[in-house]
Amino acid sequence: MAASQPPWPFWWLLPIGIAAFFILWCKAETGRRAFWTGWLVGTAYFAGTLFWIIEPFLIEPEKFAWMIPIALPALAGGLAIFWGGALLLAKRIGRGVWAEPLAFASCWMLAETLRGVVLTGFPWAQPGYSLVDVPPIQLAAYVGINGVTFLALLVGAFIGATLRADRFVPRAVFASLALCIGAGSWMAGHARLTEQDMPRAQPVQIGLVQPNVPQTQKWRPDLRDAQFSDLLEKTRLLSDQGADIVIWPEAATPLLIAEMPDIRAAIAQRLREGSVLLAGGIRVEGRGTPNQRVHNSLLAVGGDGSLLRTYDKQHLVPFGEYLPFDAVLTRLGMRAFISLPGGFAPGIAQDRALTIGAFPPFGVMICYEAIFAHEIIDRDTDVDWLVHVTNDAWFGKVAGPQQHLAQTRVRAIERGLPIARAANTGISAMIDGRGRIVESLRLNEAGTLLVSLPASVENTLYSLYEDMVLIILVLSVLAFSALMSRQSR
């Protein structure tokens, strides 16, 4: 199952792995054995998908390398508790040949939902992301990534039940259900991909800047001016080519743009009249006071050098941007990766939608925020596109950046909105409202990208109701499973 996740193309291993997992669970005779089966499989899966998590520890190995033998096993084993708990609950609920696959899939899905919210949540590597490059992912427009995952779990469980059944009738029923859900999802997704999108009435040219600064060089004072000059030169190049909006990645420069009029003036000189820069940067609130707060922000700078709008990142990365339970963990020698006294402060809860001049209104995601489907934008907020700025230099050069891009693409499908994504080391891309990459820059290459903003797709079911459809579906399947289980006793 881990090999089905990006960047690997083996999506078909997902249903095979789920089927094998289901058969292992059926063989567990007690709830305790079911728990350990789920925990062991989950630990292997998360270790195989999240191995890139050791990369941040190698940025400053003299400070953090000692934590590597602890971090990956602790993360993988901790997340696997959700899977173990799911299989324990499923063993209690699902009794009998007809109830088993339903209980297995619905309890697992409840665990995946909880994984995305408990202790601020970490829904990375959800099984449904394995399908990002095949048509069934388009069903995220109706039921979100959680719903896509649930459908995949049902297909895998029914395949496993087919292989395990010893009578013709249940074998035929389970095989038919697996085929209907799998083929139906494929055809529905393919139909959505073949729909024609209307062109945007008023074209907007978006310029993306990818500076490709290694994380080991990101905050070096001796390189700061050269890096800023490179950002300015790339901005000028895009403006000369006709960019209406230029986007820098997350924390593109350590210079405090909001507090430095001369820096904003230098930026304005590189922008053409009427254009705007959206720059990832650091913003200090209440400087010099007891209430001083440092934010990871997106700042909009106008062609006249004025600071038009700001957005402060609300969902911060635990251990990366702040240290949870810092009073205890600091005594154990732990610290956040970003050396900032007290860490970053989350932005005050605010609407993520920004409107700047006559440009179409857009929603903002800064790095980690893009993995939380339900936080992207308020359901009653009217935006026309999304901006994602990130610094994936933290995620290494193998799987992390590709997995992050895949999750961003699914956010576009769920909302039917195009996404302009600017990443420090890549992968910067323009993504249309169906999750397809229009144009992109390769990982670990410096460059710029000028592309016309695609039109948004019609309001999706997910954008209107988010996970309500899924919750009703999962609870209905779970209730039906319990009913079948009771009848089999």
List the helices and strands and how they pair.
Blueprint (H helix, E strand, L loop, with lengths): L12 H15 L3 H19 L11 H4 L3 H26 L6 H16 L24 H25 L3 H26 L11 E6 L13 H17 L4 E3 L13 H10 L5 E10 L7 E10 L4 E6 L13 H4 L23 E2 L7 E5 L18 E6 L9 H16 L3 E5 L5 E3 L5 E4 L6 E6 L8 H5 L2 H21 L1
Parallel strand pairs: 1-2, 2-3, 7-8, 8-9
Antiparallel strand pairs: 1-12, 3-4, 4-5, 6-7, 9-10, 10-11
Helix pairs in contact: 1-2, 1-6, 2-4, 4-5, 5-6, 5-13, 6-7, 6-11, 6-13, 8-9
Number of helices in the DSSP assignment: 13
- Give the radius of gyration: 24 Å
Beta percentage is: 5-15%
For the secondary structure, the number of strands is 12
Helix content: 40-55%
Class inferred from helices and paired strands: alpha/beta
Parts with pLDDT < 50 across at least 5 consecutive residues: none
Count of structural domains: 2
CATH class of the largest domain: Alpha Beta
Would you identify the CATH H-level superfamily of the largest domain? Answer: Carbon-nitrogen hydrolase
The biggest sheet amounts to: 6 strands, mixed
Shape: globular
> Secondary-structure element order, as H and E?
HHHHHHHEHEHEEEHEEEHEEEEHH
User: What strand order characterises the main sheet?
Assistant: 5-4-3-2-1-12
Summarize model confidence as the mean pLDDT: 92
